[in-house]
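Hi there,

I know you've been waiting on this one. I reran it after we fixed the sequence typo, so this is the corrected version. Both the input and the resulting structure follow.
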Amino acid sequence: MAMITVFRASISRSLPNCFPNLLSSSSNRNSAPKKNKLLCYAASSHTKTIRSEMSFCVGTHMIPHPKKVERGGEDSFFVSDYNGGVIAVADGVSGWAERNVDPSLFPQELMANASCLVGDEEVSYDPQILIRKAHAATSAVGSATVRMEN
């Protein structure tokens, strides 16, 4: 499964300045926005400005491999605005399907647990502690490669 992540960082006083291409007078307001702009704009409605002079907007769109469209792929992710923000992606291992294990369940549960634990005091903004606690809370069989940034 491929994941397209749209990042747009901007030094601004207000969140709409993060999206000059969407809001500029040069764009045709009657035409549909391009997908990446629409995704970034949709993500912005849920993004809080942490500091007035800077904002970071994230939008995602997951595209499963053509052979995995009916199952939806094996990847999962979460984005949180907690204390400056956390972005995490879990790439599930498709080889588990050979053992009749759904390879999407482990990364989905792992990311759901990590998302719930992001504000845990024991985590102390440490991605290693967060992923360890999320793994300990995960009961699904499987494995995943995880990338987490905060």
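Quick highlight: The chain has two domains: 1-63, 71-150.

Best,
R. S.
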